[in-house]
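Email to the structure team, subject: VPS10 domain-containing receptor SorCS3 model.

Hi all, the expression group asked for a predicted structure before they design truncation constructs. Nothing fancy, just the C-alpha cells so they can compare against earlier work. One-line instruction: predict VPS10 domain-containing receptor SorCS3, return C-alpha cells.
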Amino acid sequence: MSENPYVSGTISTKSSAPGIIFATGNIGAELSYNNVGMFVSSDAGNSWRPIFEEEHNIWFLDKGGALIAVKQPSVPTRHLWVSFDEGRQWTQHSFSLVPLFVDGVLVEAGAENQIMTFFGHFSHRSEWQLIKIDYKSIFSRKCTEEDYQTWHLHNQGEPCVMGQKQIYMKRRPGNYCMLGKDYSRILSAESCICRAHDFE
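Reply from the structure team: attached below.
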C-alpha cells in the first residue's frame, strides 16, 4: 500500500464507496512486475474486471459516484479518464495543454466545494505546477431515492462476513447525481446466529 496520501497505491478502496476496490496485478501463473495492469471489483473482491493495461492512480469523487484515473507519473500526460459506473466504461478528458508529470492529486470534498488539484511538473527541471478542476458540474442534481439500490455484502455467496450481515444503500452505477451530506451507507447490520461449524 502506498504511504503517499496523494496517490492511490497498488490497492485502493474507500469506506464511503461500498464494494469498490481497485488493484494492480497481472493474469498468469505467478506474480510479475512486468505487464502489470489495473483491475476493479464492484462486489468487494468476489469478482474482478480488467480496466487498464498499464498502472494508473485512481481517485474517488463524491463517494464513488465518479472515478478519476491518471497514468503513473513516469510518463507525462495531458489526459485523465472518468467513469460514472464503477469502472465499467471510461471516457478520456484533457486537463492540461502541456503534458504534465502528475505527482499526485488532492481531492477536497465539501458541501459547496468539489475541487481536485493536480500537482506535478512539466519537466524534471521545471517548477511545481498546480491545476485545479471544479468537478461539481458533472453532477447535474442531488440524488433521490430512485437513484439508490440495496447491496448485500457477501463472501462468495456467504452473507456472514466477520460475524455480521450487512446491507448497504448504494448509488446505482451510471446515475449522474451527487450524494447529500446526510448520506448513510449502511442500511442494516445484524449479528449472525452461530451454527455448528462455528464451534470446535
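DSSP finds no helices and 16 strands in the chain. The chain has a mean pLDDT of 85. Ping us if the truncation boundaries need rechecking.
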